[in-house]
């Protein structure tokens, strides 16, 4: 029986390459593709795949928040992060969100397939060594700082990302199907909780927390 895979990445070419590589293995089936975390959530609800291969830095809804929602709503659906980032914040935030694995995009297709098989069998995977080192260093850190974003609810995190992406109140209201007034109220709560006074402050926090990247 094949392991059913959903690919979530905002780069169309990469998704195509991943699909081609993965489907060359008889025990792997790609059942869908998503260009951002919001679309990934929609497809998980429709398709209920076994594993989601999740990028992190995606527009509209990042891979960390999408992973958090997926593992809460669908505990049987596993997530493997596939990212260009080995920064500790990205790795730890994804694992805290519930990801079962973390690989870098320069891994080989065989390494990805082996990770899929491991996670499908109930295991976990971290590769390469620099990712393992980040996790080990974090575990051994006696002063593990909590994420500033832990104070935000799911809807607030969604609005937070859209704000730091430069969307205005009306644009966010359209994306989230809420009123302008509701978005303004949520924005006020975000500013208050994060002790932020401007969008610039929010962008700096997003960079610090690994929600967005300048790389």
Offer a concise description of the structure.
It is built from ten helices and six strands; from the N terminus they run βαβαβαβαβαβααααα. With 215 residues, the chain is α/β, with parallel strands linked by helices.
Report mean pLDDT, rounded to a whole number.
89
Rg calc: 17 Å
Structural class: alpha/beta
CATH fold descriptor of the largest domain: Rossmann fold
Number of domains: 2
Number of strands: 6
- Unreliable residue runs: none
Distance between the termini: 39 Å
Overall geometric form: globular
The top level CATH class name of the largest domain = Alpha Beta
Supply the number of helical segments. 10
Percentage of β-strand residues: 5-15%
User: Which architecture of the largest domain does the CATH hierarchy give at level 2?
Assistant: 3-Layer(aba) Sandwich
The proportion of residues forming helix, as a percent range, comes to 40-55%
Main sheet: which strands, in order across? Answer: 2-1-3-4-5-6
Helices and strands, in order, run as: EHEHEHEHEHEHHHHH
Q: Can you characterise this structure?
A:
This protein has 215 residues and is α/β, with parallel strands linked by helices. It folds into 2 domains: 3-140, Response regulator (Rossmann fold, 3-Layer(aba) Sandwich); 148-209, Winged helix-like DNA-binding domain superfamily/Winged helix DNA-binding domain (Arc Repressor Mutant, subunit A). Helices cover 52% and strands 13% of the residues. It contains 10 helices and 6 strands; from the N terminus they run βαβαβαβαβαβααααα. It has helices at 12-22, 37-47, 63-73, 88-97, 109-120, 129-140, 154-164, 169-176, 180-194, 199-209; strands spanning 3-8, 28-34, 51-54, 78-83, 101-104, 125-126. A 6-stranded parallel β-sheet has the order 2-1-3-4-5-6, sandwiched between helices. α1 links the parallel β1 and β2. The longest helix is centred in the C-terminal third of the chain and has 15 residues, at 180-194. The mean pLDDT is 89.
């Amino acid at each position: 029986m094949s392991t059913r895979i959903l690919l979530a990445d905002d780069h169309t070419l990469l998704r195509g390459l991943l699909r081609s590589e993965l489907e060359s293995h008889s025990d792997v089936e790609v059942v869908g593709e998503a260009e951002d975390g919001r679309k990934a959530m929609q497809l998980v609800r429709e398709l209920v795949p076994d594993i989601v291969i999740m990028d992190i830095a995606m527009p509209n809804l990042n891979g960390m928040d999408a992973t958090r929602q997926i593992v809460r709503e669908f505990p049987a659906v596993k997530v493997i992060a596939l990212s260009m980032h080995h920064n500790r914040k990205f790795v730890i935030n994804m694992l805290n969100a519930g990801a079962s694995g973390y690989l870098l995009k320069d891994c080989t297709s065989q390494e990805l397939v082996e990770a899929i098989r491991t996670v499908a069998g109930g295991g976990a995977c971290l590769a390469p060594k620099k990712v393992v080192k980040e996790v080990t260093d974090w575990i051994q850190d006696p002063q593990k700082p909590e994420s500033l974003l832990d104070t935000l609810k799911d809807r607030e995190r969604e609005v937070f990302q859209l704000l730091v992406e430069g969307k205005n109140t009306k644009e966010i209201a359209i994306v989230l199907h809420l009123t302008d007034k509701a978005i303004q109220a949520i924005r006020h709560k975000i500013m208050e909780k994060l002790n932020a006074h401007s969008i610039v402050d929010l962008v700096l926090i997003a960079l610090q927390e690994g929600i967005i990247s300048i790389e």
